[in-house]
Write a structure and sequence with these properties.
It is a single chain. This protein is α/β, with parallel strands linked by helices. The protein has a single domain (about 5-164), classed as Rossmann fold, CATH 3.40.50.1110. The chain has helices at about 20, 30-55, 65-75, 125-135, 145-150, 155-164, and strands at about 5-10, 60-65, 85, 90, 105, 115, 140. The chain has a 3-stranded mixed β-sheet with strand order 1-2-7. The longest helix has 24 residues, at about 30-55. It starts with a strand and ends with a helix.
Length: about 160
């Protein structure tokens, strides 16, 4: 239909959202769910590269939410977080057993929580993700970041060629 530029975000650590952590007696991440997400992500990268080779003019940026989330949860203090397991808004254990609603208990400082509710990132986390993917390190985007993707087609083509 004419679209040639695609910004794609892979699957994050699904096994680490509060709604899933509450299913563990200890509140740990579910590794099997994270392994499924990781397997999908590993298949996505070469598929996109092959698609770009077959479709002239196709440009893309693949953002690695899995790696970003893994790094954030591994060293939360580096990003200013004090709470990585529980949600800021919700109910029950880890505020992950019930939806966020007007009657929910809220955390004291939402900027210190990775997750806003049982399944979604907090506003601060979403901002950090956007920064990392839009103009951040190559560590989280491939073959170009979102800002480079929005740039000229010749710049993107050069970056794609050099990544092959």
């Amino acid at each position: 239909m004419g679209a040639r530029k695609f910004a794609i975000i892979n699957i994050g650590l699904l096994g680490c959202v509060p709604a899933v952590r509450v299913l563990s007696p200890t509140g740990e991440c579910w590794d099997s769910l994270n392994q499924l997400a990781g397997g999908f992500n590993e298949a996505l990268r070469p598929w996109l590269a092959g698609l770009a080779r077959r479709l002239p003019g196709l440009a893309y940026s693949l953002a690695d939410l899995f790696a970003f989330t893994r790094d954030t949860l591994a060293d939360p203090q580096a990003s200013g977080y004090t709470e990585v397991a529980g949600a800021c808004c919700g109910g029950g254990r880890l505020r992950g057993e019930a939806q966020c609603s007007p009657n929910s208990t809220l955390c004291a400082n939402r900027d210190q929580h990775v997750f806003w509710d049982r399944a979604h990132f907090s506003q601060r986390t979403a901002f950090l993700i956007a920064q990392a993917f839009c103009n951040g390190p190559a560590k989280y985007t491939n073959p170009v970041n979102f800002m480079q993707l929005a740039g000229s087609v010749s710049e993107i083509t050069e970056a794609l060629e050099s990544s092959r």
